[in-house]
Design brief:
The protein has 165 residues and is mainly alpha-helical. The protein contains nine helices and no strands. The longest helix has 18 residues. The radius of gyration is 22 Å and the shape is elongated.
Amino acid sequence: MPPDTPKRPRNLAAELMAEAKLRAQLEAYQGYSDQVWSMGRVADLLWRHSDAARPLIRKALVVELDDALERESMPLPASDGVLLLEYCGSVLRPLLDDYPESAEALRQELQIIRYVAPYRGPDDSDYVTDLFDYYILYWLRTDQYRSIVEACDPEIGALVLENFD
């Protein structure tokens, strides 16, 4: 402490309360923990359940970080719709088009449907489910891919058709 700075009486209780308040504010700002970084609801879900989606997420994050540097502002979460379009076009559709040779990889990627079908997002109860329905399940229900999904994983096929309005 510089010599011209007045000394304050030390109040341990006040310091602990201030520290606890700051910690609570940081946790509220960062979501539910100071040890978890959210990339966005869809990006988080894809990251946890699809190894093949991780390079797509990385690319989207790098682009967003570069854009944030350019605009001199905080980075935004990865765009849910753009990420799902990229995931469908770069991961799922090539596997569907290469079936039955890609059966094992496709079966692995389709497992994400088990997590999405019952998922409810924190802000809007149907947000993530609706996005997956619009960007992913729509294609899985088409005549071109429906029979492939049912043949590859009958349980997932039932989930895809069950959530169809």
